[in-house]
Automatic annotation (TrEMBL):
It comes from Acinetobacter chengduensis. Residues 22-198 form the Cation efflux protein transmembrane domain. This is Cation transporter. SUPFAM superfamilies: Cation efflux protein transmembrane domain-like. The lineage of its organism: Bacteria, Pseudomonadati, Pseudomonadota, Gammaproteobacteria, Moraxellales. It is a multi-pass membrane protein. Keywords: Ion transport, Membrane, Transmembrane, Transmembrane helix, Transport, Zinc, Zinc transport.
């Protein structure tokens, strides 16, 4: 019986522009991970600490994305699936950090929060602008774009939290922002996982039809 399914397209040629964009984003995220990790610990800020973990996760994701450029759709989707799971895991880790900070009850240092938040925002806007052109690609490209978008949104929230902490002397603005960042990680991870699973399924169907 003849199969009416279409064949899986050949793996795309390496996109030099996407590769360059990934290298730039990788460097930016690795550097900001160190800055926010140290700054978050110094300022006792949950939102900065959470954002530093996000920077680290993104740096790893960009490195993995570079490794699978030119691979088949199935393997690109498989890597995207792992990245989506990592994004969701980040959300749960941040929720745990929020609970811990609430129990400790130590207000963060607002000036340090704000200064690092502005620096992180600039870094993530640069990354987001560079990766914007690839936002409608496969699940692997989409996951990269979502990482940068979520980071930029999170940095704006960190700055607002710093203003809130400065004005009220309370830790609640910091906790609320960290919770928002956790939600972004969970929802972003869900979107990537959903698309990656669909692409893996489609790839298997197309492969079976080509036999």
């Amino acid at each position: 019986m003849a199969c009416t399914c279409s064949h899986e397209p050949a793996p795309p040629k390496e996109n030099s522009k996407f590769r360059t964009a990934l290298w730039i984003a990788l460097f930016i995220n690795a550097a900001m991970f160190l800055v926010e990790l140290i700054g978050g610990a110094y300022a006792h800020s949950s939102s900065l600490w959470a954002d530093s973990l996000d920077f680290f996760g993104d740096a790893v994701n960009y490195a993995v994305s570079l490794a699978v450029l030119g691979a088949s759709l199935y393997w690109r989707a498989t890597v995207a699936l792992l990245k989506g799971m990592t994004m969701a895991l980040f959300g749960f880790v941040v929720i745990g950090k929020v609970v811990y900070s609430y129990i400790q009850g130590i207000p963060p240092e607002a000036i340090t929060m704000g200064a690092i938040g502005v620096l992180a925002l600039i870094a993530n806007v640069i990354s987001a602008v560079i990766l914007y052109a690839f936002r409608d690609g496969d699940s692997n490209m989409k996951s990269v774009w979502l990482c940068s978008r979520n980071d930029a949104i999170g940095n704006v929230a960190v700055i607002l939290a710093a203003i809130g902490v400065f004005g009220t002397g309370s830790l609640w603005p910091d906790i609320i922002v960290a919770a928002i960042m956790a939600i972004l990680g969970l929802t972003g991870g869900y979107q990537v996982i959903k698309q990656a699973l669909k692409e893996r399924k489609d790839s298997k169907i197309e492969t079976s039809c080509s036999v």
